[in-house]
Amino acid sequence: MSRGSDEASTRARTGRVVVLLAAATVAAIDLTAKAASEARLTDSSVDLGVLQLQLAYNSGVAFSMGDRLPVGVIVAITAAIAVALMVYAWRRAPQAGWVERIAGGAVIGGALANVVDRARDGRVTDYLHTGWWPTFNLADTFLVTGFTVIALLHARPERTTDTATAPTKDHTANPPVTDHPPHT
């Protein structure tokens, strides 16, 4: 193998490891928080000002949509979405920057944590309550934040240092300003 090929292989491997580590970390944090919430918030809540820790369960998906569907259907659909996200992240990781890799891991970890939680008893454990927004959990927060970061990264113009692919300036559309009148 050539040196360039080795570097590309290392970059791909590193990128994928970062996504997987971020996903595992996010899922572990959320599942731990859900277990702690179920253990400590069963008969109480904690007021933190703008946010309250309050135990709730969601048998549907976002905003309780689909709560009348069979549990198996919801688990299958959400698991399929999580797998699609993992495939996308696996393929994208070698070209992605660090921020996008971590954001992708946050999305995958959040999705997996909610799938694992729902698979246990047919519902997702929520514990973050505002009073003006449906109760949610850290997995939801990681999902939304990760998607937002990825969307913002993809919405910005490409930056490149490669002069062969860098856009060239069209000097005829906006000629340079000089102190001399143009020659006609």
Describe the overall structure.
The protein is mainly alpha-helical and 184 residues long. It has one domain (7-155). 55% of the residues lie in helices and 9% in strands. It contains four helices and three strands. It has helices at residues 3-40, 71-92, 98-121, 138-155; strands at 45-47, 52-58, 124-129. Strands 1-2-3 form a three-stranded antiparallel beta sheet. The protein is elongated, with a radius of gyration of 23 Å.
> Spatial order of the strands in the main sheet?
1-2-3
Spans of at least 5 consecutive residues with low confidence: 161-166
SSE order in H/E notation? HEEHHEH
Count of individual beta strands: 3
Total helical elements = 4
Mean pLDDT: 83
What's the gyration radius in Å? 23 Å
Structural class: mainly alpha
Which oligomerization state do the chains in this entry correspond to?
single chain
- Outline, from the CA principal axes? elongated
Helix content: 55-70%
Total discrete domains? 1
Q: Report the end-to-end length measured between terminal Cα atoms.
A: 59 Å
Q: Can you tag this structure with a few keywords?
A:
mainly alpha, 3 strands, three-stranded antiparallel β-sheet
Short description:
This protein is mainly α and 184 residues long. The chain contains 4 helices and 3 strands, in the order H-E-E-H-H-E-H.
Secondary structure blueprint with pairings:
Elements lengths: L2 H38 L4 E3 L4 E7 L12 H22 L5 H24 L2 E6 L8 H18 L29
Antiparallel strand pairs: 1-2, 2-3
Helix pairs in contact: 1-3, 2-3, 3-4
